[in-house]
Amino acid sequence: MTLSRRTFLTAAGLAAVAAPLAACATGSAGGATQGKVRLTYSTISLPKARGVLEKMLKDQGLTVEWVGPFPNHAPTLQAVVGGTADFSFGGSTTPADQAILSGADLVYVAWAASTPRTTAIVAGANTGIRKVTDLVGKTVAVNKAGLGEFLLVAALEKYKVPRESVKVTYLNPPEASAAFGAGKIDAWAIWQGFREIAEVQYGAKAIFVDGDELDFQIDFTSYLVRREYAEQNADTIRKVIKAFQADQDWQNQNYKQSLDIGNAVSHYPQAVLDKMASHNVQTKLKFVDDDGIAQLQRGADWLTQRKILTGPITVADHSAKL
Q: How far apart are CA 226 and CA 224, in angstroms?
């Protein structure tokens, strides 16, 4: 399980890493080093912690260099664009789409969907908020151009609440958690882990849950590489994604144990872990295929229509089917 999260990737940030990318790409196959693959990881990364993925790839002649930790998906995309890493970690398609729109020559190589989808808008215990329409005049924290923001947009749209009637504040999860606990914000659009902390420690109540309220998934787990890397290192990519698939299959079969392993870093109270385990989230990781392209395109179109992404994207043009 890789907990990764989403912040806006600006064109300025991409420009800043363009020079390192050009430098690293010379003298190697798409920026690759023979017999080595550089994988980004988040603060909590089961594949890295277990060590099984690393051994599986070593047995196939690939040495893993772990690059990180990163707080969310966007900076891993910057690392890939900048040539200091080969793969972004399993993170949100929303910042990935925005990175591409901002000029990054990245391609999707794998995607995943999870059930149940537990991302939710939670309301503070003493705010009087019991439903989405109660958010009028309230302050809601989201991560900008990421899962939290699109979930709030979807909720307001579904229940016909004008966006301008809600006070939106952009905070990354650690800051939002502290603000929520201190009562400085009224509601919070957030994902697993932080959601359960809010519920267990602060008495928060979920008023809008992705899987219960939305007809289709909008944001997906994804892995991306540079286009040149994909063109010249298809065999390496196949080996890496198959190793991630095997690790994900183990997590699905041993969900509670996977949470316990991650807790060596997260240090969640047992009640939070138990609540997370009760969801028994199952994730299917696949190579990019026609179904994946169609689903990612539908999500991207939804985000573009609501101006969460800065423009339209044709996902098929930025995908590598291996």
A: 7
